From TrEMBL:
The keyword Signal applies. This is Tetratricopeptide repeat protein. Residues 1-27 form the signal peptide. It comes from Rhodovulum kholense. InterPro entries: TPR-like_helical_dom_sf (IPR011990), TPR_2 (IPR013105), TPR_rpt (IPR019734), Ycf3 (IPR050498). Pfam families: TPR_16, TPR_2.
Amino acid sequence: MAKSLPRLAALAILGLAALNTAAPARADLGVSGPYLAARQASFLSDYRAAAAYYTEALVSDPSNPRLLENAMTALVGLGEVEKAVPIARRIETLGNPDQLANLVLMADQMKQGQFDRVIADLDAGRQTAPLVDGLIRAWAEFGQGRMTDALAAFDAASAQSGIKAFGLYHKALALAAVGDFEGADTIFSGEAEGPLRATRRGVLAHAEVLSQLERNDDAIELIDAAFGTEVDPGVAALRARLAEGDALPFDVIDGAAQGAAEVFFTVASALNGDALDGYTLLYARLAQFLAPKNADAILLSAGLLEAQERYELATEAYAAVPKDDPAFYAAELGRAEAMRHAGDVDGAIETLRGLAATYPDVAIVHVTLGDALRSQERFADALKAYDAAIALFDEPARGQWIVYYARGISHERLDQWPEAEADFRKALELEPDQPQVLNYLGYSYVEMNTNLDEAMSMIERAVAARPDDGYITDSLGWGLYKLGRYQEAVPHMERAAALMPVDPVVNDHLGDVYWAVGRKVEAQFQWHRALSFGPDEAEAERIRKKLEVGLDKVLKDEGAPPLRAANDG
């Protein structure tokens, strides 16, 4: 299904953005404290605290438009739409038109089956956004059993500039919901008015339609073309049923309320990445309100909360996907990631271990577990997880490079260099110009003082691919230093320090390069800077020794070759 993002964003954002410019609440004695606390909570996207404080402020000033609007916004963001409904009614009673209040009331009426009221309110002038109003009207007509009027409303929505595909998609869903699978297929296939862009939900809906038409082979072909061979467990299970000859029921939409939920989910999906996460979340939460079991809406809400660093709420959202849902594994992956960001790394690892036991044949689960273990420097355990993932690879694929790269890092940290080198080489075989791998392998060779020509070639290729990456630029400067090309190293190390001004390793390296070219005062300054940025204790002790006796003496005591000017351009 095609997106018209700028157009859709403009249609959807119109009106609701005014929430941020409304007049401030009165700073009365009973409202100023909770109001200020609520403002701060809203700024931090802390929906739970904002909802509590705004509700408290409303006790003292129950007719304040700004408090009403912001309390409602916080409650919807929190996912407590039921509590937002009476506030929306209060806003409407006070005669203050508000887009979100209209959306909340519209969603509540659709959920209650009050389709006639939805249509009457739209006729009376209640407005949200053209796309939403047109599609909700169509689904309300559908709910009233007036299919002819519903199809006309879908056609009217499709006729609006820039949003034709959205109207066609929903019309196809409505046709399928009443058993007109031929009509739905005509739209999904593009025979009616051109192809729709293939979203995940759209592809699965079309596959169910094809199955109802006894065209399972076509459904399988559609799924393979859209998702390839590496599919998630939900899609894999659906494909397997198709291959066995099962007739899949059409269950994407089973009524007008779910159709309305799909409208809100459609808007949220289109806005995602192009509008503020907090704004997009409102549409995703309304979709959840109307269709609580819609795993796609739950996952979208959870991801938006995670993007706003509300990890506790994201964890709760992910946990709302039931275990028997095909999307459960994706929800658990998200929940573990949210837990890890919240600081509960042990909990995240345990969640992933449980998931790996439940889904032993899903490579991404093992990879994610390996990444979590590696982040805790539990490299031996990480290796086992990466081994399990790689054992599931049937055929080499470009995207697998990152798994070999991660396993290679784990081998390298365990001083298993032959195994690490083999994994890095395999990663480059799959993705020859991958700058992270080129840099890591090249830098490792430089540190070991081996394969230096190849190492520098790798690092130079990595720099060319990512000229603004401080770590990679540092590798180039450090490689030149190791080769004794000190003057050449200076500008690269200076650029690395400019790109990463508070990194202790980069500043330490710049100090060494300055010392090598005779700029000893500047070298000492950089070493002091490096110490101030918290290097690990072994590095800190070495830096302190350099400050005390100089780099030449440190190298001599370590048995390292002395500084030399050979090959220095």
